[in-house]
Amino acid sequence: MPPPSKPNKFYFFYGKRKPSQNRPTVYGGLFSNRQTLDPQTLYAPRRKTPTSESPTNFSLQNWDPDAQNGLKSITPKTPSENFFQIAQRLSPIARYICDSFRKHGRWGAPVIADLGKLRRVKPDLVAEVLKVQTDPNLCSKFFHWAGKQKGYKHTYASYNAFAYCLNRLNRFRAADQVPELMHMQGRPPSEKQFEILIRMHADNNRGLRVYYVYEKMKKFGVKPRVFLYNRIMDALVKTGHLDLAMLVYDDFKRGGLVEETVTYMILVKGLCKVGRIDEMLELLGRMRSLCKPDVFAYTAMIRVLVAEGNLDGCLKVWDEMRRDQVEPDAMAYTTLITALCKGNRVEKGYELFNGMKKTGDLIDRAIYNALVESFVADGKVGSGLDLLKDMMDSGYRADLSIYNSLIVGLCNVKQLDKAYKLFLVTVQEGLQPDFTTVNPLLISYAESRKMDEFCNLLMQMQKLGSPVMDGLCKFFSVMAERVDRLPLTLEVFRDLKIKGYYSISIYNILLGAFYKSGQAKMALSLFREIKYSNLEPDSTTYSHAITCLIDLEDVKEACLWYNRIKEMGSVPSVAAYCSLVKGLCKIGEIDAAISLVQDCLANVTSGPLEFKYALSIIHTCKSNDADEVIRAVNELIEQGCLPNEIIYCAVISGMCKHGTIEEARKGFMVPTYGLGLYQGGMRDLTDDKCKRLYEYRVSNGSVIHVFMRPLRLASSPSASKNNPPLLASGSSAFRSMPPMLPVTRQLPGICHSCPMKFIRFQ
Question: In the chain, how many domains are there?
Answer without folding.
Answer: 1
